[in-house]
Model the fold of this input.
Amino acid sequence: MVDENANDYTGLPLFHINAQIYSSLGMMIAGGILTLRSLFSASMFWEDITRYKCTHFNLLGSLANILYSLPPSEFEKDNPAKYVIIGGMPVEIWKKFEERFGVEVLEGYSMTEDPLPCLNPPGKYKKIGSFGVPVFPDLGHDAKIVDDSGKEVPFGTVGELLRKNPAQMIGYYKAPEKTAEVMKDGWLFSGDFARMDNEGYLYFVDRKKFIVRRSGENIASWEIEAVLKSHPKVADVAVIPVPDPIRGEEIKAFVMPKYGEELKEEELVEFMAGKVAYFKVPRYIELVDHLPYTPTGRVKKWELKEKEKERKDHGWDRDKMIPDWRTRYKAR
Done:
């Protein structure tokens, strides 16, 4: 798949492990070409791919959303790219992305602390929604899902993802206590919730710190974000837990409408009520013109979460504004 004829395109920053290892080092080893853009540009993306004859490219899920939301471009048609290597491809646009742009999605997972990836294999072995299996199991790359006590859980059960392999870090620089928190008996604790099916395929659920713990229910923010992003007027979303004196935590959604679209909070409540269980419908909704992004295109949800800790009023409140919302919208 990757040889001296490969030409990898990336606009991700070189200080990030993705561009450092999978693009730069990968092309050095393969003897192929690396096409670098100093800063990701959605408007120039397909023109670059076509002009430089790139055979594949690297993305993060939020950037895939941006590309898919743009109007069709003359350069996206018959472009030379064959596949995209990505982390966090939104399931709701996965097949549509492949069909529209003519590329195969290769979903993966890794960490700076443990760069040897898990990868969803191409072709008939691929499972949509999964980030695949640990690569190079013959070198000792292994993964398991555990509960809060560290006990391995049955297939299909959500728990924390642990991995072990020869490429993982020795430890955090001059931080032995922090290292001890995440590395135990050779296993690296990822801080991510995931599940494993009976064929060993792994599925991302959420970051542990962004799971909403509401009245004893563990609610994945990614699940809510995926549904909200499928609304035709929504460009991007960030869902976080906010403190609640009765339920422990409640759900808040920051929603960025598509340019030129008029969107009301009530529309989103009605939209969600027909698609998820009632307790997963966000109580608080804040419509925003923009969201804070990292240089790699991820929303800085931790920044939003920290700001909400200081607020007593979390904004537009579904229960105050639409007290009868469950009966009105037939929430199940």
Summary: The longest strand covers residues 234-244. The two ends are 47 Å apart (CA to CA). The mean pLDDT is 93.
